[in-house]
Amino acid sequence: MKFTFLFPGQGSQSVGMMNGFDGLPVIKDTFKEASDVIGVDLWKMANEDNSELDQTINTQPLMLTAGVATWRCWLQESGAMPHFFAGHSLGEYTALVAAGAISFGDALPLVKYRAELMQNAVPEGIGAMAVILGLEDDVIKSLCLDMAQGQVVEAVNFNSPGQVVVAGDKSAVERVMLSSKDHGAKRAMALPVSVPSHCSLMRAAAAELETYLQTLVVLKPQVPVLHNSDVMPHDEPEDIKKALVRQLYSPVRWVETINCLVNQGVRFGAECGPGKVLTGLTKRISSELPCIALVDTDSIYNFKAQISQ
User: Fold this and answer.
1) 301 with 307: CB under 8 angstroms?
2) Is 183 a catalytic site residue?
3) Given 88, 180, 198, 234, the catalytic residue
4) Side-by-side strand order, sheet with 225-226
5) In the annotation, is 12 catalytic?
């Protein structure tokens, strides 16, 4: 039976997020390896309640490390390779590491640099993101066009039916939030972020990322990775790099990603990293792809038994 591994992105972090794997050397060793590379104690950060945890420049290498650590735990306990990988936003980088396309040692400074570019692209307080619940995708796209009024506001995360995230200039995002309620949205809620990810305000950052990626060693993935921007796998290193550049200013097409996996015959999924965000989204997208969140050793054993049936 075909199965997939899904890697979460920014927003799934929490204090004590690796507690389910407490005492496993492979987890601690992965965090130490990452901390040595970027010069920050990520294990301490993951286990202390402080504001650093949610700063983009810290969250991105932290989530990459947590996802890779969980993946290594899976390999140690099972060794079974999935038929596809996919990752939500930052999770796409974790997927590429798991697939052998980018080394962990190279991915860590890459995502840290990506976070710096994103933070520097739009001054604090200028950009915003909000989640809109209960409206059709086309309605939200239309609202973004109507409410832009010379600014930038775009639908950037198609997370599940009836859940779309918009991003752009703060005042334009606020106009979309107000207008969405007038059009029957169940809820319009600002997200606690300062970086308007995946919208055209990130184009300048994408240009700098493209320059950085020119020096990065990228190999053919051992397992197909579905990319956020086009919902397609790529084998050629240059195509992978182009997909990562596009991802910075293009929507995360998560609904299409899950439906693509289902159409490819995938029937089991595992969320490989902290939290259960993708597990919940997948449940709302398709009943044909049950997903389990690998948040502790028991869930790893359960998923191993599930795919062995």
Assistant:
1) no
2) no
3) 198
4) 225-226, 84-87, 2-7, 266-271, 291-293
5) no
